[in-house]
């Protein structure tokens, strides 16, 4: 190919690229405005994104509420630490996993007080980074350890039920995570009550 041919090819390529880019401008730049279908698709995508963000926020709120309940129970009954610490660590991991990919929740002001659990629980699991806005204060922990475990099991069961309900509207990947966390919560509820008798 001659030098003139190469130049002509480069000029033609540059002109074609410039022409293609000219059609990509916004309506104020003289480009074509998005069609009604494109606008509707954009609105639908925004609605879905908002719904998923709200779903994640609720799931993280539920998980952090359960985590605070574990911390309060550990603070009230340090003797239960060997039994509760592994379960609490699992709940903390679930809360973190549920919040990945989009929650913008802020730390609760009372969560620092609630996480003043025995050093066995707090030193092995760092506090979760995405916590939820302050809600109602957790109910006081029963003074009797068996009653405290029963109440913690009920909280684990309630959180598992919330995650199961959220499956109906969750996107597929997040639904699988919610199902896994719900199953773990049901197992925790069993271990906190029935599993102790076995």
Overall residue-averaged pLDDT value: 76
Structural class: mainly alpha
Radius of gyration: 26 Å
Taking pLDDT < 50 over at least 5 consecutive residues as the criterion, the unreliable ranges are 103-133
Q: Based on CA inertia axes, which overall geometry fits?
A: elongated
Provide structural commentary.
The chain has helices spanning 3-22, 36-76, 81-99, 111-114, 119-124, 145-166, 172-192, 194-197. It has 198 residues and is mainly α. Helix 2 runs antiparallel to helix 3. The longest helix is centred in the N-terminal third of the chain and has 41 residues, at 36-76. The chain is elongated and about 70 Å long. Residues 103-133 have low confidence and may be disordered.
Please supply descriptive tags for the structure shown above:
198 residues, mainly alpha, 8 helices
Furnish the topology, listing elements before pairings:
Layout: H1 3-22, H2 36-76, H3 81-99, H4 111-114, H5 119-124, H6 145-166, H7 172-192, H8 194-197
Concise synopsis of the structure shown:
This protein is mostly helical. Helices cover 69% and strands 0% of the residues. Helix 2 (36-76) packs antiparallel against helix 3.
């Amino acid at each position: 190919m001659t030098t003139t041919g190469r130049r002509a090819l480069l000029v033609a390529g540059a002109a074609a690229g410039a022409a293609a880019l000219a059609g990509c401008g916004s309506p104020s730049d003289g480009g074509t405005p998005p069609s009604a279908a494109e606008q509707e698709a954009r609105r639908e995508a925004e609605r879905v994104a908002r719904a998923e963000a709200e779903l994640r926020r609720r799931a993280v709120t539920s998980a952090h509420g359960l985590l605070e309940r574990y911390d309060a129970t550990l603070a009230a009954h340090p003797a239960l630490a060997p039994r509760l610490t592994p379960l609490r660590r699992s709940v903390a991991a679930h809360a973190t996993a549920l919040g990945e990919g989009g929650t913008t929740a802020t730390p609760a002001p009372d969560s620092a007080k609630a996480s003043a659990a025995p050093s066995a629980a707090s030193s092995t699991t760092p506090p979760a980074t995405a916590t939820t806005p302050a809600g109602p204060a957790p109910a006081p922990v029963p003074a009797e350890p068996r009653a405290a475990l029963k109440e913690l099991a009920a909280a684990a069961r309630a959180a598992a039920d919330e995650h199961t309900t959220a499956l109906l509207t969750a996107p597929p990947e997040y639904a699988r995570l919610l199902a896994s966390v719900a199953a773990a919560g049901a197992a925790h509820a069993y271990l906190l009550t029935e599993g102790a008798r076995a």
